[in-house]
Structure formats: structure tokens, C-alpha cells
């Protein structure tokens, strides 16, 4: 029981750590707070690559949050802010990468694989069906006779 | 199509898919560290800046780093691997490689002490306390090293420690190409 409680306490303390990136920003407009949240959720931290910059405690993520805050204050729209980041850090910083030549594989790859899987299944199914249909009639009378012969006398 | 034909088609298709995967995996492995990001700035001009130098007696701008192909090395005293890289940079500077330093988000006194203690390989020391130039360069750690040509276009970027082997095998040729290009 003691162990169980300890595990829970430890677990709770860990969740605290995971959401510890808190800054105090005063937004001029109420809508900006929401946009700030959206943007920091959509942009990936370049250093700690599996966190968005809202979540990350890395200094670089804090810098990028500060920069987003500054740009919101300047009245930049979301696209301008995202372009600013992509210009510097590449498509990588977006969790939703733009569709272009470099990211086409990323966007269409899974659908392509799925389609490939369907093709494979279709081919297998058709082949099996074809086999079943062909087997009885594929032997001519002569062949069947010879087969019977072979089955009767497996060793000569 | 005969049964055999279909089977071959299927085998060929599966081989093709596996081949595609193998190619992707091999190219990714060859690239080395997967957390290394390609720079979005290659082929673009070095960003404008106006920052003091580390020594505190000059203001440096982009015009100061133009004219010669050079390495622009981002470092800080807080960066442990920069300490490993530093002697290599000293050697390169001795051999005549032009290196500019960006002292990134550092305490000025620490930076001065470091340069006095370990020797200063940098032709110019840009002091980027706020990380504003670093942000415009898409820096996400240190050390990072940019290769610029004589016109100040970023031609390449290397993330991580430059050691003797990396320089010999990967980077020396890149730098030499920029030097050759500048002297027709």
C-alpha cells in the first residue's frame, strides 16, 4: 500500500514536470491569448524534437514563445508568424507541414501504402479464385489418365 | 494473364515496395544523427545584424563579415561540447581558415575569460546576448557552424562539434570550394 501511494505521488509529480513551461505574458487583446496557445501548440521545439514549444522547457522554446508574443503584439497574423519560423527552422517546426515537393511523401505516403496493400490483397484474392476455378478443368483427359497412373504407381 | 505471370507481378510489386523502404532507411542512416535538422537558410543571405563585439569596443554589422569565405561559429561558455571544439578551431585559424564567432546567449565576463584562457581563434567576436542573431540564423543549440561565401550567402551548416576527423573528411573540401570560388 505504501508503495502504491508512493507510485501515485511520484506519477503526479512527473505530470507536474511535463507541464511546467509557464510564462507570464500580458496580452493586449483577449483573442491573442488564444492565438498564442494555438501557435505554440502547432510549432515544434527544434531542440527537444518531440515537444511543441508550448510544452518545452528548453531555452530555445522560451525564446520562440517570446518571439511569438512579440509578433502578436505587432499585429502579425498566424500565417506570417508561422512563415517566420519556417524561414529560420525549416518545415520541421510545423506539426502540420505545408504541402510541397519535399513533404509530399509525408502527406501521401500512408495513403499510398494503404492503396498498395489493397492492390496486394486484390491480386492474392484473384489469384486464389483463379486457381480454384482452373484446377478441375485444367487437366485434359490424357493428363488425368496419366495422373491416375502416377498415383496408382508412385514408384516405377 | 497466366497464374505464373500474376505471381511474378506480385513478387515484383512486393520487391519494389521493400526496395523503396530500404532506400529510405539507408539514406536516413547515412545522414547520421536523425535529430540534426537541415538548415532552412542554405542559399540565403546571412541575416543583417548590428551587435557589439565581445571585447566591447566596436559595433559589428554584416558588412564586417563580407569579402572572404568564412566559417561562422556559434558558441557559448555554457556549451560543454564547445570546449571540445575550441582547440580544433584554434588549429584551423592557425592554418588560415577565417572563422567568425557568435558568442550566443552568454555572460560577457565568462566569454572574455574563455577567450583569454583558451586562445581566440575568431577574426571577429560577435556578442549575441539576447540570441536575436541566433534566432534569425535558426540556431537551436551550440556549437553550430555556418559556411558563408565572400558575398555573405550561407552555403552550408554543420551542427555539432567540428573535430579533426569531421573537418578532414567532410568540411575541409566545402571550405576549400568556397575559397576557390572566391579566387578565379
UniProtKB/TrEMBL annotation, chain A:
Keywords: Cytochrome c-type biogenesis, Heme, Iron, Membrane, Metal-binding, Signal, Transmembrane, Transmembrane helix. The keyword Metal-binding applies. Pfam families: CcmH (PF03918). It comes from the Bacteria. Gene3D superfamilies: Cytochrome C biogenesis protein. One of its GO terms (cellular component) is plasma membrane. Residues 141-156 have a biased composition (Basic and acidic residues). One of its GO terms (molecular function) is metal ion binding. The chain crosses the membrane at residues 104-125. CDD domains: CcmH_N. Possible subunit of a heme lyase. PANTHER family: CYTOCHROME C-TYPE BIOGENESIS PROTEIN CCMH. This is Cytochrome c-type biogenesis protein. It comes from Pseudomonas khorasanensis.
UniProtKB/TrEMBL annotation, chain B:
It is found in: Cell inner membrane. SUPFAM superfamilies: Thioredoxin-like. One of its GO terms (cellular component) is plasma membrane. GO terms for molecular function: disulfide oxidoreductase activity. One of its GO terms (biological process) is cytochrome complex assembly. Signal peptide: none annotated. Residues 40-176 form the Thioredoxin domain. It is a single-pass membrane protein. The keyword Disulfide bond applies. Belongs to the thioredoxin family. DsbE subfamily. This is DsbE family thiol:disulfide interchange protein. The lineage of its organism: Bacteria, Pseudomonadati, Pseudomonadota, Gammaproteobacteria, Pseudomonadales.
Amino acid at each position: 500500500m505504501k508503495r502504491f501511494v508512493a507510485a501515485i505521488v511520484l506519477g503526479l509529480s512527473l505530470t507536474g514536470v511535463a507541464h511546467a513551461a509557464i510564462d507570464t505574458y500580458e496580452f493586449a487583446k483577449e483573442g491573442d491569448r488564444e492565438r498564442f496557445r494555438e501557435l505554440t501548440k502547432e510549432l515544434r521545439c527544434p531542440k527537444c524534437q518531440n515537444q511543441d514549444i508550448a510544452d518545452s522547457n528548453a531555452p530555445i522554446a522560451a525564446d520562440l514563445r517570446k518571439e511569438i508574443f512579440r509578433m502578436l503584439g505587432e499585429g502579425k497574423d498566424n500565417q506570417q508568424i508561422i512563415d517566420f519560423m519556417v524561414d529560420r527552422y525549416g518545415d520541421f517546426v510545423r506539426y502540420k507541414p505545408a504541402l510541397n515537393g519535399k513533404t509530399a511523401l509525408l502527406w501521401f505516403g500512408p495513403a499510398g501504402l494503404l492503396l498498395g496493400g489493397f492492390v496486394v490483397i486484390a491480386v492474392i484474392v484473384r489469384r486464389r479464385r483463379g486457381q480454384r476455378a482452373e484446377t478441375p478443368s485444367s487437366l485434359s483427359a490424357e493428363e488425368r489418365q496419366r495422373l491416375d497412373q502416377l498415383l496408382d504407381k508412385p514408384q516405377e | 494473364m497466366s497464374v505464373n505471370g500474376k505471381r511474378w507481378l506480385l513478387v515484383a510489386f512486393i520487391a519494389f515496395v521493400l526496395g523503396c523502404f530500404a532506400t529510405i532507411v539507408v539514406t536516413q542512416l547515412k545522414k547520421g544523427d536523425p535529430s540534426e535538422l537541415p538548415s532552412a537558410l542554405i542559399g540565403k543571405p546571412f541575416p543583417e545584424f548590428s551587435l557589439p563585439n565581445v571585447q566591447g569596443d566596436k559595433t559589428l554589422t554584416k558588412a564586417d563579415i563580407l569579402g572572404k569565405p568564412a566559417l561562422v561559429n556559434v558558441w557559448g561558455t555554457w556549451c560543454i561540447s564547445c570546449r571540445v571544439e575550441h582547440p580544433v578551431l584554434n588549429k584551423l585559424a592557425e592554418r588560415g581558415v577565417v572563422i567568425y564567432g557568435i558568442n550566443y546567449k552568454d555572460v560577457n565576463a565568462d566569454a572574455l575569460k574563455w577567450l583569454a584562457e583558451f586562445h581566440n581563434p575568431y577574426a571577429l567576436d560577435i556578442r549575441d546576448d539576447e540570441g536575436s542573431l541566433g534566432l534569425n540564423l535558426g540556431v537551436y543549440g551550440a556549437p553550430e557552424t555556418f559556411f558563408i561565401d565572400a558575398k555573405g550567402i550561407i552555403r552550408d551548416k554543420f551542427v555539432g562539434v567540428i573535430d579533426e576527423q569531421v573537418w578532414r573528411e567532410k568540411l575541409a573540401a566545402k571550405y576549400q570550394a568556397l575559397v576557390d570560388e572566391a579566387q578565379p
